[in-house]
Amino acid sequence: MELTPRTSAAPRRGRPRVLPLLVLGALLLLGGFLVVKALGSASTFYRNVDEAVAQKNSIGTKRFRLQGTVAPCTVERTGDGVSFAVTYNGVEIPVHHVGDPPEMFKEDQAVLLEGHFDADGSETFDSDLMIVKHSEVYKAKESERLAAADQGGRVPVSNGQVATSPGCAQ
Q1: Rg (CA), the chain
Q2: Higher pLDDT, 79 or 3
Q3: 7, 12, 42, 102, 137 from 107: Cα distances, Å
Q4: Are strands 64-70 and 46-48 parallel, antiparallel or unpaired?
Q5: Residue 154 clears pLDDT 50, i.e. is over it
Q6: What is the pLDDT of residue 140?
Q7: Domain 46-148 in CATH: superfamily?
Q8: Model confidence at 9, in pLDDT bands (50, 70, 90)?
Q9: Sign of the C-alpha dihedral computed for residues 121, 123, 124 and 127 taken in this order
Q10: What is the mean pLDDT of residues 100-118?
């Protein structure tokens, strides 16, 4: 039995390991893409009506969230949703919301809208997401209804009418 070390060992030549490097590169690209998309959607900015109007030229048709109060006597049902005006700090802009507004949507109510300014250059804000802020008074007034909903009961559907102020002409 020979126990002397070999000194003339030829370097091992195999196929380069390209496939694992390609898979790693693809995973890194996919991870980077997902991070960019997540950060992009998380950076939807909130603006009050007065800020949005002042920054309209720089905003263009970029998507953002608009905060304000539904102006009295401006709510009008459309074929695909509702049109109304929203106001903040004395500045008012028209809004066209696509889709059914939340049940608690009414005049003089704080709303948060997500969308963009109309592409035709008008002052109209096109919205497809509406969040209505409500007070704790709602919980007290609608305690039976909320309890029924918590218990899985069926709550009657509203008649689809939008609440308007008594002083508005219809």
Answers
A1: 29
A2: 79
A3: 91, 79, 29, 13, 16
A4: parallel
A5: no
A6: 61
A7: Nucleic acid-binding proteins (2.40.50.140)
A8: low
A9: positive
A10: 89
| Domain definitions of the chain by residue range | 46-148
Structure tokens at 62: 């970029």
* SS3 sequence of the chain: CCCCCCCCCCCCCCCCCHHHHHHHHHHHHHHHHHHHHHHHHHCCCEEEHHHHHHCHHHHCCCCEEEEEEECCCCCEEECCEEEEEEEECCEEEEEEEECCCCCCCECCCEEEEEEEECCCCCCCEEEEEEEECCCCHHHHHCHHHHHHHHCCCCCCCCCCCCECCCCCCC
Q: Buried b / exposed e across 81-110, counting CB within 10 Å, b at 16+? A: bbebbbbbeeebbebbbeeebeeebbbebe
